[in-house]
Every structure is written in C-alpha cells, then in structure tokens.
Amino acid sequence: xxxxxxxxxxxxxxxxxxxxxxxxxxxxxxxxxxxxxxxxxxxxxxxxxxxxxxxxxxxxxxxxxxxxxxxxxxxxxxxxxxxxxxxxxxxxxxxxxxxxxxxxxxxxxxxxxxxxxxxxxxxxxxxxxxxxxxxxxxxxxxxxxxxxxxxxxxxxxxxxxxxxxxxxxxxxxxxxxxxxxxxxxxxxxxxxxxxxxxxxxxxxxxxxxxxxxxxxxxxxxxxxxxxxxxxxxxxxxxxxxxxxxxxxxxxxxxxxxxxxxxxxxxxxxxxxxxxxxxxxxxxxxxxxxxxxxxxxxxxxxxxxxxxxxxxxxxxxxxxxxxxxxxxxxxxxxxxxxxxxxxxxxxxxxxxxxxxxxxxxxxxxxxxxxxxxxxxxxxxxxxxxxxxxxxxxxxxxxxxxxxxxxxxxxxxxxxxxxxxxxxxxxxxxxxxxxxxxxxxxxxxxxxxxxxxxxxxxx
Length: 457
Hints:
Blueprint: H1 2-59, E1 63-80, E2 85-94, E3 98-112, E4 115-130, E5 151-156, E6 166-170, E7 173-177, E8 191-194, E9 206-217, E10 219-222, E11 228-235, E12 240-244, E13 250-254, E14 257-265, E15 274-276, H2 292-296, E16 309-313, H3 319-327, H4 330-347, H5 354-378, H6 380-403, H7 406-428, H8 433-452
Parallel strand pairs: 1-10, 3-11
Antiparallel strand pairs: 1-2, 1-5, 2-15, 3-4, 4-9, 5-8, 6-7, 6-9, 10-16, 11-14, 12-16, 13-14
C-alpha cells in the first residue's frame, strides 16, 4: 500500500512533464504531414508552369527584340604559301548609332483549366540610323569585304509571335526580312534581308524604320544595340514589373496602365559597337546582369541580350508562393496551439488525452490543404479566411465536446483567431515580417510565462 502511494505521488509530480514530452514529440511527428503539404504545393505550382508553357508554345513565348544589326562578310587569309593562298569567310557586325523604340502592349488573359496565363499583343515601332560604318576599325581591308553579300538582321526570340510580314525601310528601299539560313555564327535564326551594296559609301547615313506586330507571353524586352538607345513602352496592364539590366529613367503606374521610358548609352553596356565573328552572340534567354569578369573569360562567349531591359506583365497574386510561406509557420501554429490547450487544461484541472492533441494537430495541418485548394479558385486572401474559419470552427466544436465548457472553448478559439491573424499579417507585410515575428513571439512568451506560474509543477 505504501509503495502504491509512493508511485502515485511520483506520477502526479511527473505526469505534466511526461505529457509535455509527448506533446513535443507529437509536434515533431506532425511536421511529416506538413512536409507532404509542401510537396503538394510544389506539385501544383509545377502543374501551373506546365499550363503556362503549353499556352505560350501555341501563342508565343517571352520576347527579346535585338537589332537591327548590320553584317558584312569578308575574306581572311589563314595562311600563305608560294603556290596557293588559303582564305576563309568571316563576319563583321556593326550596330546602329541611334535606335528608337516605341512599343504599345495590349494584355490578354487566357485560361488553361483553372490556371490564368498572361499573354500580350504588341505594336512595336523601331527606327534609327547608321551614321558611318568603318570596317577599318576592325582591321578589315575594303577589298576583302564581300559587299554583295552584306545583310541586315533583327533577332526576335520567338518568330511564332509575328502576326505580319516584317518589312524594313532602309534609306529609300523597302526590304522584306525573312528567316533565311545564314551561317554567320551569331544568330542563325534571325530575320534578315540582303542590302545589295557595292561599297561602304552606300552605308553612310543609312536611316531605317520598321513596324512589328508581335505576340508574346509575360515578358517583353529590348536589347540596347544603339550607341544611343531610347525605349518608350506603354500598356493598359496596371501591374508591371520592370525587369532586365536597367530600370526606366521615368515611369508611371496607375489603374489605367503604365508607361516607362529608358535611355541607354554605349558606355553603360558591356559590348562594343562592332566586333568580328562570334566574340559576342545573340541567345534566347532571360537577361541577367553580366559582370566584366564574364566578358573577360577566355572560354566564355556572352550574349548581348544580357543587357536587355523591359517589362514583365506581372500577375500580383501568386497563391502558391504565399501558401508555401504560410506552411513554414506550421510548426509555430501547432506549437502555440498545443501550449494554449495545455495551459487551459492544466490551469482549469481538466484532463485531455494525447489522442485529442493529435486530432487537433491534424486539423491544423488540414488548414493548409484547404488554403491550397481554395486559393486556386478564389485567390489567397479569401482562401485564407475560408480555411482559417473552417479550422477554428472544427477545433472549437471538438474542444467544446472534450472540455464541456463554453468559456474555455471561447478562450481557445480566440487564441486561434489571433494566431491566424498574426500569421496573415506577417504574410502580407513581408518587409516587416522579422520585427513583427520577433515582437509577436516575445509577447506570446510573456503570456505563457504568466499563466505557467499557476501550474504546480
């Protein structure tokens, strides 16, 4: 009998500690389904990207417009022998002195299933001039140039987006540009047209202009190939994101759309006005900022599109990113809910089985699956309200049956509402997330310390 009393006393003193360990272990176990929720979010986001790619492949992809570029083929002697001289064909590239671009973008929203894809159609006016072309600066003799093979070209990332034939006014001539196969080592898929010239004099003060009717998806960028390049871009889309290697010098954004103006000088970019062969290339990829060391690398040829700039027709609400961020707070939500529940049952001398904690924890995990599924249809904010209301209601109904107390159920419900509101505020104010998180956790710790004083450990 005495031994039983000792065991009972020891158990009474240690049961809170043991239960605390079980609750802590349960929190860690619940991170397993939280991980699977994160994988589900990644899977749904990948499906969204597949839908984007599918629609873009049928309409047109992201567009980078580069050019026009003047190309002069020339002969170069590789070796000289007493009987035979070996020559090979090379190419010299010249960029315009002035380039002016005026573009108007009309957004179009398309749907693939439940996914919205941002497409656009654009009217692009390109004009400028080549003041003087000097092959001598590249150590090319005039007699080595193959004048009758000279051509001008413009590179567009996805020619599928062209809605009309591309024609260029070159001096007094009207040129028709087409995707001819020219092995000029820089961009074989560019649109080009022969110039039919016989000397460098015919290239002096060459004024050009052209109009493009171009479709694309999400992004429209321009490479500043002019010694002086100006770009004016406008659209009715109210949520632009200015991207690329430089920001517009002036911009305005309102509910009716946006306008951006860029001005770029040759000294602010990393490629020259002329070069030979494939010292520089034109490639189809999103331009990232390129450093001098990249260009100095002996084994690396850099695309001049690295200098491109423009706009992304940004869709402001990305439910997957916000849902993923909210899942990262899962351990905090579960832990604080369990702590509140533990304090309520201990202070009020109620007994709750660990299985009940497990069921409440699963309800908290289900919040994220509800949030994910509803956000695909209603948007993140409304989905968050629906999911949190459903979760709080379910847990309140469950706890009411366990504790048989409206007062205690109300206390836990208020804690959950405050917790979800706190997380939602952090998600909305991303720049202030750290300070809000720190203050919130500090106040929470203070509340826990206050109520823990009432527990007879």
